[in-house]
Design a protein that fits this description.
By secondary structure, the chain is an alpha/beta fold. Helices cover about 40% and strands about 15% of the residues. It has 2 domains: about 270 residues, TIM Barrel (Alpha-Beta Barrel), CATH 3.20.20; about 60 residues, no CATH class. The strands form 3 sheets. An 8-stranded parallel beta barrel has the order 3-6-7-8-9-10-11-12, surrounded by 7 helices. It has a two-stranded antiparallel ribbon with strand order 1-2. A two-stranded antiparallel sheet has the order 4-5. The structure holds iron/sulfur cluster (2 copies). Keywords: Iron, Iron-sulfur, Metal-binding.
Amino acid sequence: MQYRDFGKTGIKVSALGFGAMRLPLSGENQVDEKRAVAMIRHAIDQGVNYIDTAYPYHEGESERIVGEALQEGYREKTYLATKCPVWKLVKEEDFEEVLDEQLAKLKTDHVDFYLLHALSRDRFEEKIKKLKLVEKMEKARADGKIKYIGFSFHDSYDVFQDILDYYDGWDFCQIQYNYVDLTHQAGLKGLKEAAGKGLAVVIMEPLLGGRLANPASHVKEVLGSEKSSVEYALDFLWDQPEVSLLLSGMSDEQQLEDNLLYADRSYIGMVSEEEHAMYKKAKEVFDSMALVGCTGCRYCVPCPFGLEIPEIFSYYNMTAAHKEDEAKAGYEALAIKADSCKTCHRCEKECPQMIKISQVMPEVAKVFEKIQA
Ligand code: SF4
Ligand code: SF4
């Protein structure tokens, strides 16, 4: 395993972090706990020292399962990151209550890296400022319940800059970044700005919710043939000195083995000039084919009217990737289709990608009507 500097903290973290957001499943959305625990422990045995979870992952089960995985001496071998679900907090006292609940689930007396989760303009104004959450974080640190203070982010660059400037004490931040998201959200500019201020930067969605793991054949053709699509996507990030580590939400043992191997081969400056041009071209092709930037995070479900929003978007995106047959078969099998959207906007408040879901649904319905005709 390769280790990298975690901002100014003096800590060395593994190039690969284990994201506990897409743990292996045994049934529909039911985590296969035995496999998940074994995978997390195996990652730690192989040198991974950063495990990342959050309050809402797997409907609250992720923290509990990570807590189990870190028994039998594993907690002492790794740093642990989790996130404060700021949207749940109504009054100032809720912060500590929620943190205590998380510590109990994680079966630990402290979290190493605690993040204010998925900040946007609204959450920054309505929660962070009004409920004085930075002060709460500092108090939790003074009490020994957390060690380092950070935030994860989903909004536009100007909001990112305001949050960075709001507090001098940020130790780290977590942003969405990959070879197609260069100017989306915090983007490359945000990465450089945060690193320039001495923050460690954790990268999430390095594979854009899996869309870069198995990209459309047109994108694949642009990428070289020496590495897998996953390795190309991850190497793009490891190449950059501002990246402290990247999180991968690994769902099976093979993905874990592959990522461990890739991380072991990684180093700063590993991308050649030729490969830089290749990534640029791959992004251009990807952009020309992307319909909706859904990462499959599932924050938007359940929809009160039963729409399986991430699945609908996944089939919709397949149509642009020239996988019409697969898209059509999958969409036809859905009991409730895009035209059942009642424009209630509930889902849109939860979407970290700021997708105007109710506006896209009629478009999806139209496209599938055409395909089926
Ligand atoms: S806007 Fe449409 S998809 Fe979103 S929650 Fe409402 S009905 Fe469901
Ligand atoms: S629509 Fe938004 S919230 Fe729902 S799965 Fe996609 S990215 Fe996540």
